[in-house]
């Protein structure tokens, strides 16, 4: 009985620590403190957006350009 309790405590400690170290299932999740600019840079580096779109969105995010308004027909 005591041996089972010790094993349970060890497993609980292991699971608690592995979650804090980022060893859980969600290592690719965007809640890791990435800013909008970081995400934009990643998208440009992967080739998902072209240079013109990258520069335009970068200006919008930095506050140098007013956001684009989309008119609904």
Structure description:
The protein has 73 residues and is mostly helical. It has a domain at 34-65. Helices cover 56% and strands 0% of the residues. It is built from three helices and no strands. The protein has helices at residues 2-20, 36-45, 51-62. It is rod-shaped, with a radius of gyration of 22 Å. It starts with a helix and ends in an 11-residue tail after the last helix.
Secondary structure elements and pairings:
Blueprint: H1 2-20, H2 36-45, H3 51-62
Helix pairs in contact: 2-3
Count the helices. How many? 3
- Poorly predicted tracts of residues: none
Molecular shape = rod-shaped
Rg computed from alpha carbons, rounded to a whole number of angstroms: 22 Å
Q: Give the distance, in angstroms, between the N- and C-terminal Cα atoms.
A: 71 Å
What series of H and E elements makes up the topology? HHH
